[in-house]
Amino acid sequence: MRPGGSVWVWLTLGVCAALVLGAMTWLTRNVVGSERERAVAEARADLQERMRLALWRMDSAGTALIVEEGQRPVVETSEITPPAPGSPVKMRFELSENGSLSAREGEARLPQLRRLLRDSREGREMFTTLCGSLEISSVNWSANLKEPDEPPVPQQVPQQQGLAQQKDSEQAYYNAKERASRGRAVDNQVAKVAQGNNSNTKDGGQSLPAPRIVSSGRVLVDAGPPRPTWIGGEMFLLRKIVWEGAPPRGGRSIQGVWLDTVKLRKSLLAEIRDLLPAAKLVPATEAASDGLVLASFPWRLEAGTVPHALALPRPIAISLLAGWVAALLAIGAASLLVRGILRLSERRASFVSAVTHELRTPLTTFRLYSDMLEAGAVKEEKRGDYLRVLSREADRLSHLVENVLAFSRIERGSARAAVRETTVHDLLEPMRERFVSRLSAAALRLQMDLDDANGTLPLRVDGAAVEHILFNLIDNAAKYAAGGEPPEVTITIVRERSAIRIEVRDHGPGVAAGERKRIFRAFHKSARDAAETRPGVGLGLALSRRLARSLGGDLDYEDTVGGGACFILTLPTHRRS
Q1: What is the rounded CA–CA span in Å between residue 500 and residue 466?
Q2: What are phi and psi for residue 195, nearest 5 degrees?
């Protein structure tokens, strides 16, 4: 492959991987977004249902309090029952149309109540409404609500305004007198009914409310339902009362219940603690269209934060996870495949260049020496040396071709083993002469003792494969250990429990630490490595390890003390029956 070809291959793979990951990211984002929208919609619906239930619960509790106050008998202020312990009621009071304020319990709160009714906008509006319904003037109502120890407030008004006020007061007196007269007429009507007169209707046929006689001789004409309202930031329950007669014992008045806002809020929120733990109630002073204001009390419900899970459903999460795993595995497999193809291409290129270099040298030697011998340019006494060089180069070429063909057969799976039963001595002794011949060319000698007890160990192996492995090790020793001290290569047999170890040890420079993982890799030498180091294409050790493993053994490298290289061939033993 061209030098820049691998760059384009990796760039193309990167673009494809980016497209796949981008598509998976887009898909995941859309799925997660859809599930999040669904979860948010479900959470919103759940929140609305919770709020609906919460409003219903709080309105039920609030309405019960209002109904309880509405069913309480209308009595004199002096006869009002004090609130029970723990009740949200602070005090009960009555405000008459002339501005007089009375209460039985909570006397210490009366000054504060007066200030609320006098100084707050809601208090002024309430009293103005009361006076308007009675058709009397409310100019001096704040003066009537003064504190007991406050001096009277002088009214500095023009003369004409004073005359108008006097006229209004006189008109109010006559109106009140007329209402008292109507009240007495109603009393007479009630008395007739009490005496057994069955005619209890007016001329129009409408029934009259039967008056109730309460303590101190006061007669109740009408009583409205309690209605909650805010006055100066405090919650009150107010209802209009109509007494027979004119003030101060008769006339119209407002009976109110001053509620403890904190206790009431806590009691209402306690009703919905399981639905909305973080809910709050805030005063509702204006009409709201969102439906979150209580029907019983003017409070607005704020739900707060309601935790809800946004986890993906298990089937969708598993599908997305499987998709991502498949995409990543596909990208990883493609990367490994491309890397393997590129490495194979590089190794083939290295093999071709290394083999070309290995073939060029002996072929050049053949051509040069054959031309010199043919031309008679070599003296008679030198011809033997030339012929030995040619024979050595021929052996070198033969060994190279043999390794390549053997490796090719193993790669294709067509290698056939001729397994036979033998002993260590019978296996290695016939190889001695070939080993000695190869080492002698590098000025090395062979040390191999096969006469001890280990020489009789039985083996069942392919002798040709073992010879090929050991000759590759001897050939490497001749290439790299020449000039070592002592100049020898030792083959040692070591017996193990179920195998034997054949150790081939030399005294050369050994194998560098950075090369120990590469030496068993096929075609690890490039043309430059073959030119700068010893001859070879880097195929012998890879072939030898594969042959050893095909025999059920292995081939490893081991460091030696004092330098040198040690290759260990492990073969399984064969026990005779």
Answers
A1: 13
A2: -80, 5
How far is Cα 105 from Cα 110, in angstroms, rounded to an integer?
A: 9
Tokens 């290295």 belong to residue: 350
Q: What's the rounded Cα separation, in Å, for the pair 96 and 103?
A: 12
Give the integer Cα–Cα distance in Å for 158 and 196: 57
Architecture of domain 330-572: 2-Layer Sandwich (3.30)
Buried b / exposed e along 66-86 (16+ C-beta atoms within 10 A): beebeeeebbebeebeebeee
Q: Which helix (H) or strand (E) holds 318?
A: helix 314-375
Residue 567: the pLDDT is 92
Q: E-assigned strands of 277-342?
A: 280-283, 299-302
Residue 533's identity, in one-letter code, is T
Helix (H) or strand (E) holding 237: strand 234-243
Report how far residue 225's alpha carbon sits from residue 180's, in angstroms, rounded to the nearest whole number. Answer: 23
Determine the Cα–Cα distance for residues 522 and 411; give it in Å rounded to an integer. 11
Q: Where in the chain is the domain with CATH 3.30.565.10?
A: 330-572
Q: Give tens-digit pLDDT for 117-142.
A: 777 776 767 666 655 544 444 434 44
CA distances for 101 relative to 75, 135, 141, 199, angstroms = 15, 20, 11, 39
Half-sphere exposure of 520 (CA within 13 A, CB side): 14
Which of the listed ranges 104-108, 152-156, 319-323, 533-537 does the model predict with the highest average pLDDT? Answer: 319-323
Q: Distance between CA atoms of 19 and 24, rounded to whole angstroms?
A: 9
| Helix axes 314-375 and 5-70, enclosed angle (nearest 10) | 170
Alpha helix segments (H runs only) across 250-300: 261-270
From the list 536, 452, 545, 461, the residue with the least C-alpha distance to 491 is 452
> Collapsing DSSP states into helix, strand and coil, what is residue 433?
helix
The candidate with the shortest Cα–Cα distance to 550, out of 414, 408, 417, 399, is 417
Q: Is the link from the previous residue into 248 a cis peptide, with omega within 30 of 0?
A: yes
In sequence order, the β-bridge partners of residue 515 are none
Distance, CA of 280 to CA of 58 (rounded, Å): 12
Residue type, 23: A
